[in-house]
Amino acid sequence: MNRELKRVTLAVIGMFTALFIAASVVQVVTADQLSADSRNTRTMYESYRYKRGPILVAGTPIAESVPVDNKYRFQRTYPNPFVYSNVTGYFTLTQGLTGIEGAMNSYLSGKTGSQFLNQLNAILTGQEPQGASVELTLDPVLQQASWDALGDYQGAIIVTEPSTGKILAMVSKPGYDPNLLASHNTNEVIAAYTALNEDPLEPLIDKTIAGDLNPPGSVFKLVMVAAALESGKYTPESTFPNPASFQLPGTDVFIKNWNRGPCPGAGAEVTLEQALKQSCNIPFAELGLELGRKAILDQAKKFGFNTSFEIPMKTAASEFPVVMDDPQTALASFGQYDVRATPLQVALVSAGIANGGMVMYPNTVNQVLEPSLKPISQFSAKEFSQAMSPENAATLRDMMVASVRSGLATNARISGVDVAGKTGTAENGDGEPFTFWFTGFAPADSPRYAVTVLVENGGGLGQSGDSNEITATIARKVLEAGLNK
């Protein structure tokens, strides 16, 4: 009898232990994760009982909660809605939350484990519990300049600080008004959300980090040059045959340069430097076949391809194919085939070159502050990868300067400042509008800003537009705004 009681006792103790561990995991270990989950509607409704913390840029709220005379007590408002909509995201009663609102929800709502004692103390002392403030790395001058420079184009701009990985501007167009989704009238919110979600221009998608990714086109040639230099087998003076067309091995498909002839400014052979400056496809297809798929893939990964980042919003992973045959490798070598990239990824490439080959981990949060303004957490620069040696990065930087000075990116020139840059025009299929790119940094010898511009849908010009005319011009305006601060 005692043996049976002992077994029952041990079983009961085991079950209570398991229950205690499970409850502890839910309430302590995964509390922040569950609180931040947009499907957790109970937490969402409860969060309206307290004043949600503001999202700040240079000390000014771009999202804040104001008192209202209804059961929810506070209303979320966005003072400059369109300019920051892709960054703040939205905070709704019925449709969840996105952007910084979603990624930093546990801090903004005051529900992190580190904030528990502060909230408890506020209740005991009769004060109003309040969430933490989230101060972003964004620069208001660069953010506004990026919004203005992009104009009516459909696309995105991202500006980074190469030495730290701080994101100083990120704009996605078309934008939207998150105030429409912050209403306490659920019918109004659902109607507004449905209209935005069904808009073919996809204003709810942050094109800087997600969405239907675009082929990078010729801006990928920067990765190719990096791979060539890092191999130790190539220099800017290395030469390649310079025909007017090139037959992909084992196929009846011919590729051409943008001018439908040999690479301009060269004879029977063209140097790597000339090929980058004139953005010729054929020499890069030849280079890709010589380097091989694995060398290109390894270099692309060092710059961040095939990696998803948390900035803290989770980004889509840019794609460089893992498996390709020779014809596909040749096409991928100038940013076509199945290569796809976000503006953030392209920005990491140019910022890495600007930073002596070191790619810094990107981030949008500068610090998180308690209501008393005591820091809960602060930005700390973090290295992602040494993508290339400082010497090779300097060589590639000089090649990019030549591209702006007298190549196909001349519209990015700024008087008295050396700008390093590269344009790109990507094809999307027969008859489909081009995708235009620019990526670069300035000043070239001491980079303060790296900028990447994406313009989708051919800039409204189908296949007749020009990346130098469109994206390089936009980039110049943004860089000038930063340099003239």
Note down, in words, how this protein is organized.
This protein is α+β, with helices and mostly antiparallel strands and 485 residues long. It has a domain of 252 residues: DD-peptidase/beta-lactamase superfamily (Beta-lactamase, 3-Layer(aba) Sandwich). It has 17 helices and 17 strands. The protein has a six-stranded mixed sheet with strand order 3-2-1-4-12-13. Strands 6-5-17-16-15 form a five-stranded antiparallel sheet, sandwiched between helices. It has a two-stranded antiparallel sheet with strand order 7-10. The longest helix has 28 residues. The mean pLDDT is 91.
State the main characteristics.
single chain; 485 residues; alpha+beta; Beta-lactamase; six-stranded mixed β-sheet; five-stranded antiparallel β-sheet; 17 helices; 17 strands; 17% strand
